[in-house]
Design brief:
This is Transcriptional regulator. The protein has helices spanning 21-38, 43-48, 53-65, 83-116, 133-146, 159-170, 197-206, 249-265, 288-297, 303-310, 314-328, 333-342; strands at 7-8, 11-12, 69-71, 78-80, 127-130, 150-155, 182-188, 211-214, 220-224, 228-232, 243-246, 267-268, 279-281, 284-286. By secondary structure, it is of the alpha+beta class.
């Protein structure tokens, strides 16, 4: 698309064909920037900037569809939607489209191969093998952005889980979740002994997402709405080859049922807050360090793990555990955590 048409022999030359692809996007961007600079763009103002009527009609309609311009009734003037709001909404739409495109690429490839008679072995429609830890992590990040109803995640100490937790500890917005999404997080006790795990748990709790702990998760699972699930097997194969993304109804219902069972059988992890002040509950002095000890105790964590996560010595943990068990009348460590939760200490 050009803004002028040359004359040949005194007559107007045929208008060039409409631009497509990147060239069209560049024209859309240039008119958008022109509109932003004008503040209140009008048909006459855009003409004065060198745009012809055909371009103005086409591109302003596109920008209106993208939520970046609002036309008046006559269609000869436009209101610019505040750029920060319009651009972020546009980026969000593109991210959703990219995630959906990525999720359906394999299935479309299978359909195409079947249509052209490709002799290679086909994967079942709606089931995709993931080839690397990076691929698994990318799909998990995409599902966090894509989820609108629920995001249920059970994490074992897999290579992909460790990579994601490290990334989320050093970069903001790696695992975003929309407001209103039903989030459930279950963490394997083995994962709590790894770097970045507790900081991830505490950030999730601060965001209002319930966290539970379970021992012996066989592998990591993630369910995104009722549209996709990931079976992360990278703990068993650190390369990541062999993990799966499923989009078929049967596997999705199976993953949902398994995650529901894991959730019921797991132990709620109490919110651990650092207020810097102590409290007295049932006549027992209880500070934030003791709350953390009790919260980890309820998950079945070892003294060594509690010591590392609390920043105290193993001997101090042993003393505090004995003190708490005595005042709770608990015969076992796990019972102490349960009793504390029942009394509202956690």
């Amino acid at each position: 698309m050009t803004r002028t048409t040359a004359r040949r022999g005194g007559t107007r030359a045929p208008a060039p064909a409409r631009l497509h692809g990147e060239a069209y996007e560049e024209s859309v961007s240039r008119l958008w920037l022109t509109a932003v600079r004008l503040g209140r763009p009008t048909l006459d103002a855009l003409r004065k900037q060198g745009w012809d009527d055909a371009e103005i009609e086409d591109i302003t309609a596109e920008l209106t569809a993208r939520g970046m311009l609002v036309p008046n009734v006559e269609g000869d003037a436009w209101q610019v939607v505040p750029p920060a709001e319009a651009v972020l909404r546009h980026i969000e739409r593109w991210e959703r489209r990219i995630s959906l495109a990525r999720a359906t690429a394999s299935e479309l490839d299978q359909i195409w191969r079947a249509a052209v008679g490709d002799g290679r072995e086909l994967q079942p429609a709606g089931m995709e093998l993931l080839k690397s830890v990076a691929d698994i992590a990318q799909r998990v990040r995409g599902m966090h952005r894509l989820a609108t109803e629920r995001l249920w995640w059970a994490l074992d100490a897999s290579a992909a889980s460790l990579a994601l937790l490290e990334e989320s500890a050093t970069e903001e917005g790696v695992l975003p979740v929309r407001s209103g999404v039903d989030v459930r997080i279950v963490v394997d006790t083995a994962l709590l002994d790894t770097p970045h795990a507790m900081s991830f748990v505490e950030r999730a709790q601060a965001a209002g997402h319930p966290v539970r702990v379970a021992a012996g998760l066989p592998f990591s699972l993630l369910l995104c709405d009722a549209r996709a699930a990931i079976l992360d097997l990278s703990r068993h194969d650190p390369v990541g080859d062999g993990s799966l993304e499923a989009r078929r109804t049967g596997p999705l219902k199976g993953v949902e049922a398994l995650l529901q069972e894991i959730w019921v059988l797991s132990t709620p992890l109490a919110v651990v807050v650092d207020t810097g002040t102590g409290t007295v509950l049932d006549g027992v002095p209880l500070d934030d360090r003791d709350r953390r000890v009790l919260a980890l105790l309820a998950t079945g964590a070892s003294d060594q793990l509690i010591a590392r996560q609390s920043g105290i010595s193993v001997r101090t943990v042993e003393r505090r555990v004995r003190y708490l068990m005595d005042h709770l009348g608990a015969a076992t460590r796990f019972q102490a955590g349960v009793q504390a939760a029942r009394r509202g200490w956690l």
